[in-house]
């Protein structure tokens, strides 16, 4: 059974080190998961690393769901966290909830977003 958000919170509370690595595809995710990584992050940096974009701005929800699904199929032990890409949550709360749900449906157990207060 894979790690849960509660497992990671307990590790932090207990002062244990938590390993996190960014992964975008089945092969890398499988290798990292087998090595004992605690958290696999599907970052929107996939746009630059895997798709050759200049930055993360062009990354779409469909692309993030595809990368998340791929990593999810490989993962057996790690917690899976996925990024919400640019403008998938900033416009309104409804978009944030809907797009977070898409990532959860794709296999994420937690969703990461970047922003201010």
Cα separation of the termini: 35 Å
N-to-C order of helices and strands: HEHEHHEHE
Sheet/helix structural class: alpha/beta
The CATH topology is given as TIM Barrel
Strand share of the residues?
Answer: 5-15%
CATH structural class? Alpha Beta
The CATH architecture can be named as Alpha-Beta Barrel
Identify the strand order in the major beta sheet.
1-2-3-4
User: Can you give the helix content as a percent range?
Assistant: 40-55%
Number of strands: 4
Oligomer class: single chain
Mean pLDDT: 95
CATH H-level superfamily title? Phosphoenolpyruvate-binding domains
The major sheet is characterized as:
4 strands, parallel
Search tags:
5 helices, 4-stranded parallel beta sheet
Descriptive account of the structure:
With 117 residues, the chain is of the alpha/beta class. It has one domain: Phosphoenolpyruvate-binding domains (TIM Barrel, Alpha-Beta Barrel). It has five helices and four strands. Strands 1-2-3-4 form a four-stranded parallel sheet, covered by helices on one side. α5 links the parallel β3 and β4. The longest helix is centred in the middle third of the chain and has 14 residues. 34% of the residues are buried. The mean pLDDT is 95.
Present the secondary structure layout.
Blueprint: H1 5-13, E1 20-22, H2 26-34, E2 39-42, H3 46-49, H4 61-74, E3 79-83, H5 93-105, E4 110-112
Parallel strand pairs: 1-2, 2-3, 3-4
Helix pairs in contact: 2-4, 4-5
